[in-house]
Amino acid sequence: MICLKRSLSFIMQAFRSMACAEEFEMCRADLKYFVLTCFLTLHACLASPPTSLNLEQLQRELHQQTNAFRHEKGLEQLEALTELNQVSAAQSQDMATRHYFDHQNPDGQLPNDRLRTQQPGLLAIQNGENIAMRSWERESPAEMAKTLMKLWADSPEHYETMVHPDFWQLGVGFFLKDKVLYATQTFAAVVVRLQDELPASVPENTSLKLSFQFHARFPKSELDAFLILPDPSARMPVGDGSSYIGKGPVRLDWSDESHFSLKLNTRYGLGYYTLLFGRKGNYYDTPFKILVKKTEGA
């Protein structure tokens, strides 16, 4: 942009100079000089490399190139998730600011730990991570994405992560510090995403509604939910008149193909209510926990 402004300034000065010429031959000579100089100036300006790296464009480029790479291998495309982008960007920034380059951070957290801590509303049954660190030599976002893809594709461990058939989503994030780019890919198999933040606690004897988005690659009819009560002796009735003791299934109310809600009744004691999701009765070990406290003033 600065280069173009300088070029336009030069053009205006040249026009003013030509307007002052009184002789035709002088004007024609000025015109030749003007055209040649403008061409060379604008060519140098447009051909100059970028002075900053557009990280949003790089994010799009890397996601597209990762999916193109998987497509060549006959694999499914990965859905872009904002939450995974945020986890990736946080990891890249953390490596840059705390001066390390590893999947395990100085606090001992691994990718799975960071995903659960930073995005508690995601139920991810699998996840993986690729990281890279490379100097930025003023390449374009497309060129930098291509370079990162080659680095990972040439490494057997990183290659296996990119072509893992059981991942469904991808997030990418970067941090640029002193012309050194830190890059992170976060792969995951996210089953559901909680659309509202879980409250710190809820009062007893209330009905709590939770809304979710379904992201799994299996049919929604195979998704189950199960609730473990804080009181193992409490009876939880179900629709057919029977009841479960200490736990029971939860009904899912679907509003469309990818969104559903459920209601939790907190009349079964104080403490943590543990909500589990599963597929065909096989439940995942990543629960949502809801703390129920005694009603104030009761």
UniProtKB/TrEMBL annotation:
Listed Pfam families: CAP
SUPFAM superfamilies: PR-1-like (SSF55797)
CDD domains in alphabetical order: CAP_bacterial
InterPro entries referenced in this protein's UniProt entry, alphabetically: CAP_dom, CAP_sf
Start and end residues of each SCP domain: 65-178
Protein name, entry field: SCP domain-containing protein
Source organism per UniProt: bacterium (Candidatus Blackallbacteria) CG17_big_fil_post_rev_8_21_14_2_50_48_46
Lineage: Bacteria, Candidatus Blackallbacteria
